[in-house]
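pls ignore typos typing on phone
2'-monophosphoadenosine-5'-diphosphate + seq
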Amino acid sequence: MKKNFVRTGLIGHPVSHSKSPLIHNYWIKRHNLEGLYAAVDLPCETLEEGIASLVAQGFCGFNVTVPHKVDVMKHCHQIDNLAKRVGAVNTVVIQDKKLFGTNTDVFGFVQNIKENAPKDFDFKNGDALVLGAGGASRAVVQGLLDEGVPKILIANRTRSNADILLAHVSDPSRIKIVPWEDKANKDICGQANLLVNTTSLGMTGKAVLKMDLSHLPEKCLVNDIVYAPLMTGLLEAAKKRGNPVVTGIGMLLHQARPAFEKWYGIMPAVTPELEKMVLS
Ligand code: ATR
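k done
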């Protein structure tokens, strides 16, 4: 193999469905680089040996997906502040056989909104209502805090999971946990500038997300991080009543950019061609 061949990949379980190889290998080709991004299926009990094998094979880094985003942290020699605040690592750079962990999901979420929301959308303009308090929600909430959202309301089916999230964020004073059953109430969603679904509800094969949007302000931006289907039931309902919507595919595409830059030294672009490939 050539000396400057840059090997990267994704670890997770399962990984066969992942679009990340498509995205990174598209950029490798587009920028005429020598390299390959591979999907590596690592069941939980093989995480440590799997990582050691990637290091031994000379990988320059890898992405991390479910279920390893938290567990991979104990194998990192260094974790940056952002990943510490999110409590999860989704990108690892390997240098001199040492692992450096970071998190690019926050960038992916924020950039997707910035690029695809109406021009007059401003994170600082009002409340954000976040549905869900799992791993993805942590990155979303951190992004919202970093962008200066004045108040973030979190509704999660299991209250204790929202409490755990609250205990980890950088500024809990701007967060309020609200009952899942009350998310559609006027006093909860009536002031929202942004509504984000971070739960798996609405995803192909999962239960639908039931939420009455009648109290949602018409200007409220609605974003779903689910991207299969691209137009979820929530987005369809929001669009029908005139709310601006942003789909979830951009978060996937944009989170890949800073990871690629760390490994290959080029900040790649999200092109319509790439988006079409990933959605087909
Ligand atoms: P991810 O890393 O993708 O965020 P996760 O950490 O498993 O995945 O989180 C899934 C989120 O979807 C959680 O907020 C979960 O709520 P609970 O904390 O109550 O489990 C939410 N979720 C999943 N199925 C749900 C359902 N049927 N109704 C409501 N919320 C659901």
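The radius of gyration is 19 Å. The pocket of 2'-monophosphoadenosine-5'-diphosphate is lined by residues 132-137, 156-158, 161, 198-201, 207 (CB under 6 Å). more later
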